[in-house]
Amino acid sequence: MYTVSVNNTTSQPKVLDKIIDVLRRDDIGGRLLILGKPGSGKTTTLLDLAEELLERANNNDSKPIPIIFELSAWRDDSIDILDWLIIQLKQEYNLAPGISRFWLERGEVLPLLDGLDELGLEKQRKCIRAINEYLAKDAKRNLVVCCREEEYIAGDEQLSELHSAVCLQPLSNKQIQNYLEVFDRGDLWQSIENNPEFLELAKTPLLLSIMVVAYQGQAIQTKEELFDAYIERRFEVNPANKEEP
């Protein structure tokens, strides 16, 4: 399997460009695995990828339509992936099974499967086998799967029919600084830089966004203080406030 590591960011246009470039490679054939640690932005990356691919499909009829599927809904492991996708399209979009099957078999729909790690190891193994069987039956079938890196490695089944993997890496110090500047929190960088524990936390996009919300100019010394301040701040924030990350 071809593997590439990328640094994730909140806006992440360069990340998306790199992922799409990998996805389009002839030897990859539209089959991709997205891996990352908890809070690394896997689902956000998948959502942004779907949005970008949908825009390209709107501008070019030859491009497949991306649709996100939650693997937490894969409850009956006796159903193969193709039939499961057809059922999901019927339930979520009231799409006729015949049309769904036609589009999926022609590669006109690109399924983006999220939450493989949420199944638990035993069911994850069964799902991986089902995905491999689905892909092995037809070279036109494209697929993107999103999973936590640790849970994927822990399983003894691999997505052998996926031709590439993208591993989301922790944020660099420069990316952290750039993100803080966007939200006018440049002074927060000094607190993070001087606290090794916070600097490690800030390398995860989710935790960095929590820091931005929690920080109000007063020093926060521990993780407990950080999360307490975040919860308190969230109760105060007006949901309509567009300035909050």
Describe the fold and architecture.
The structure is a single chain. By secondary structure, the chain is of the alpha/beta class. It folds into 2 domains: 2-169, Rossmann fold, CATH 3.40.50.300; 173-235, no CATH class. It has helices at residues 13-24, 42-59, 81-93, 97-105, 121-136, 149-154, 173-182, 188-193, 196-202, 205-214, 223-236; strands at 2-7, 31-36, 65-70, 109-114, 143-148, 164-169. A 6-stranded parallel beta sheet has the order 1-6-2-5-4-3. α5 links the parallel β4 and β5 (143-148). The mean pLDDT is 85.
Short summary of the structure?
The protein has 245 residues and is an alpha/beta fold. It has two domains: 2-169, Rossmann fold (3-Layer(aba) Sandwich); 173-235, no CATH class.
Label this structure with key terms.
245 residues; alpha/beta; Rossmann fold; six-stranded parallel beta sheet; 11 helices; 15% strand; elongated
Q: End-to-end distance, in Å?
A: 36 Å
Binned, the helix content reads: 40-55%
The level-1 CATH class of the largest domain = Alpha Beta
Unreliable stretches (pLDDT < 50, length at least 5) are none
The fraction of residues in strands falls at 5-15%
Going by helix content, strand content and strand pairing, the class is alpha/beta
* Mass-distribution shape: elongated
Q: Number of DSSP strands? A: 6
Average of the residue pLDDT scores: 85
Number of discrete helical segments: 11
Q: How many separate domains make up the residues?
A: 2
CATH architectural arrangement of the largest domain: 3-Layer(aba) Sandwich
> What is the H/E string?
EHEHEHHEHEHEHHHHH
Whole-number radius of gyration?
A: 20 Å
**Largest sheet report:** 6 strands, parallel
Annotated CATH homologous superfamily of the largest domain: P-loop containing nucleotide triphosphate hydrolases
According to CATH, the fold-level topology of the largest domain is Rossmann fold
| Sequence of strands across the biggest β-sheet | 1-6-2-5-4-3
